[in-house]
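HUMAN: You are asked to prepare a plain-text protein record giving the amino acid sequence and the backbone structure tokens, both parts labelled.

ASSISTANT:
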Amino acid sequence: TCSVAKKELDDLEQWKKEHRPGPITLVPQRLGGNESEAQVRQNQQMILMQSKYQQKHKREEYVKAKKAAEEAEILKKKEIQRKKAERLEVKKRQEEMQRREMFLGDQKYKTNELLNRLDVGLPKSDSCQIANPGPESTAWKRSHAYKQALREDENRRLEEMRQEQQRKAELLEFKQKQEEETRTRTLKNEQRRVNNAFLDRLQNKTQPNDIYHPGYTG
């Protein structure tokens, strides 16, 4: 039995020798890719820079969107306030016209009453009575009442002019504030446009085909 096992082992070794593979011949070739280590590191650095820029760009876009939403909300509130101011102005004008009409009617009534009282003699509130007032006294009273009515009418018109000028000044101040806010928004939009253009140029300068600058940290 031992001789049989030894013979089998010998046969196996002989078979291995006969079927041993020959030498392997490979064509020499360059391993590790077609790029140099410096180029690979440059590409890695460029990818990292682009990733950082994209993250920064996303943050800026988020901030701009949030700011735009806030500005839109502010404009909406200002528009509501403007409409309220316009309605209030219309209401004031209507009330002013009503007061003016009432004032003119009351003034006309008082003037007619005064002239009627002057036609029959002295005012009823006077304690003294003149039996037969002369024509000169009656004419003087009428002239005096007429001048007084003219002065009151002039004072009324001056007061109306003053109130009208005040309303115009308030309206002009309101328009100037709106124009200033419009100019401020225009300036901010222009600044954003310039900043975005600068970032676009910066992104174009940092493309992978640019020359790598050693020591650049982004």
Q: What stands out?
A: The radius of gyration is 51 Å. Residues 85 and 91 are 10 Å apart (CA to CA). The chain has three helices and no strands.
